[in-house]
Task: structure prediction
Amino acid sequence: MSTVNQWTGRFRPTRLDGILLVGLVAAAGWMWYRSAVGVAYRWDWPQALSTVFAAGDAGETPFFLTGIYATLRLSLWGAVLASILGVLIGVGRYAGGRTLRMFCGTYIQILRNIPPLVFIFIFYFFISSQLMPLLGLDALFNRPAEEASGWQRFLFGPPALWENLVSGVLCISFISAAYIAEVVRAGLAAIPRGQWEAGESLGIPVLDRYRFVIFPQALARIAPPLTGQYISLVKDSSIVSLISVQELTFVGSEIANSSGLLFEVWLLVAFVYFLLCLSLSILLRQVERRMTRHFHQFA
Amino acid sequence: MSGDTPSIIAFEDVSKWFGTFQVLRDVDLSIGEGECVVICGPSGSGKSTLIRCINRLETHDRGVVRVHGVPLGPGERLPRELRGKIGMVFQSFNLFPHMTVLRNLALAPMRNLRMDKEKAEETALTYLERVHIGDQAEKYPDQLSGGQQQRVAIARALCMQPDILLFDEPTSSLDPEMIREVLDVIFELTDSGITMVCVTHEMGFARKVSDRVVFMDHGEIVESAAPDAFFDAPREERTRAFLNQILHYEATA
Amino acid sequence: MIGLFRRPWVRRVLSNWIQPAAIAGILVFAVMRGAENINYRWQWYRVDDFLFTSENGAWAAGPLVQGLFVTLEISVLSLFLTLVIGLVTALLRLSSSMVGRGLARGYLELIRNTPLLIQLYVMYFVLGPILGWGQTTTAIACLAAFQGAYTSEIFRAGLRAIPRGQVEAGESLGLKRLDNYRYVILPQVLRNMLPPLTNEAVSLVKNSSIVSVIAIFDLTTQGRNLIADTFLTFEIWLTVAAIYLAVTLALSTAAAMAERRRAGA
Ligand SMILES: Nc1ncnc2c1ncn2[C@@H]1O[C@H](COP(=O)(O)OP(=O)(O)O)[C@@H](O)[C@H]1O
Ligand SMILES: [Mg+2]
Result:
């Protein structure tokens, strides 16, 4: 309680504070009692940490870290692809002809209304059995590993897992694109018609009108919801572990099962995601603030 | 006047519908080069729609609109060579809020006329001086007063060196003390040779500045006359009623 | 009757929901025809057995319909819990208690910054055993804890939007504080919150499919099991997706109607 006091300097305890504190302590005590006595779990954090961060036999990157890197790559490429698709679909929904609008609307509604899990299972089956052979991607991915250069490994990870990465990226970016498209559409719809008309009457070509007049304003409006979508994307990337994409969740569950240190490993995985998302949201908020400096009137 | 000079804008039997509602009814109107025409009429009579058919922010459904002799049929947009040549000043300014005043002015010359940045900004400054706000170039629109914003909007349209300028109630959303500064700027443009079509309810301004006043009601052109004749001896009953209504306050104030 | 189709909300439901569903159906049909060319043998006729079975003239729910019931059951139960958690969190955030606000804040950050799947694993592998929870309890608690964080925002907005004048009017009429809440404030707040709350229900149904990873026999699990048995991958997944879509669609339509009643009232 004294620490709380130091935070603000004006902590005036209420009755509710007391009740909550007592409840909190009781809950923590009960949990400790249950874990120590009830299920007799033997916590072993040193063992867990050394298992998680142990280098491989030949000094390879620790398995756990490869999972973190994979999640980062998955999120990065997923975000890039989702942004491109999302903007295209969102603009199509907003400005397309009747047919295009209808298709974009269908995409948005369907993807946002079936469980991501179900989509991933359908789509994964579709990708692996139809899309990959069709596009000849399997040939691309089955090249000898030595051909991959250093930067390719840095950007895309070990060549043996490229196909794996692509499946994951496609899945999460297709889902995320639907949400981004809806945000983009709403952002465009919120720009007053006069802005379009001013651009048109000045004779600014259509693409330039989007680029210089409409998008910057739309971007300022959609920056906050967009930030939320990118964080969702990082979080949603965990479900591709279920189609065996070897990212953080997948790796976490392998380690948890093989080491038997279930409690420690899962808490650690949760903690890593928490740090990832939290730092991402702080970072994006900075970018957002920088971008929207001149938009006091929209804030 | 329209008789002597070649016409730069001509409406020939133009009609337009919004759904089942007819906004323009067989409009015939010819405007000569360099002429300044004021359009007035009750709210909802189709004034905005009419002038927006000139720069094709709206398209009509029947008849022909000729701009610079180019015949535009129903549904036709503005041909490439005319884009930007018909400036428009809106009631709500429509400045780009995310750009400085200077960028607002320089954008169209850079993207449409392919002017380089220095040249475009130089031009922009010239026109800002002309509307008496050369010192506001680096500000953002929302840091300016309404009157200043509208003058920026006029300068922005001038930067494209238009032959035609359309004004859609340029002073209607201004506080009274700012109306004058905007009207003065418009007045100063009358000897520039630019053809001006101005929708306004400022009758004093119409009388002083315009070559001709056009009165619209229910999508029709009811009367079109030189300002003195229009205000002193209106021929149509509807015109008289309208003038009575809006001049009432000026007379009694 | 014709007039019905002109009403804005009916048109919105049609264009936002029915039309996409119809287009999706047509697309699926096209994919099916395409798949025939690549030697996928469609066996749709086998799917109806998974929906309903009839034995000696007596109809019974097939595995998919049984799964749907489990999904609905879990969704409904966690919806109740979600509302409780959401309301309590919102009240704590608006309270004068610093511990309360800190607690609410910490809970929200925790939920918002970790994946639902990880929350489920932590609950299932760590909290569940400690607290002695079974699968179903874990699933319901997890979904509610997740959704509650988002729902609390709706409650918070709703509670903050209570017009002061209404509170004062009630008090000046001498209503007791509880009566004032019950008869004056709550009905207004609830009416405003109904549409967004319906959307939370849609999210819940959608998110509930994730509990299939802890072996709960919901719609998704039933689908996966059937596929493992029959290899009718596309048929079953598409059926499962269509069932989810039908449920979310029905709820969203209800939300649109509620919204319309609020706007039109
Ligand atoms: N985009 C539109 N859709 C439907 N009706 C419109 C639209 N724009 C204008 N109108 C209608 O057309 C009529 C004329 O509008 P307008 O030209 O703006 O009149 P004015 O400028 O003379 O006030 C009004 O009754 C208005 O409601
Ligand atoms: Mg108008």
User: Anything to note?
Assistant: DSSP finds eight helices and ten strands in chain B. Strands of chain B lie at 7-18, 21-32, 36-40, 62-67, 70-72, 86-89, 164-168, 195-199, 212-217, 220-225. Chain B has a mean pLDDT of 92. Chain B has one domain: 7-221.
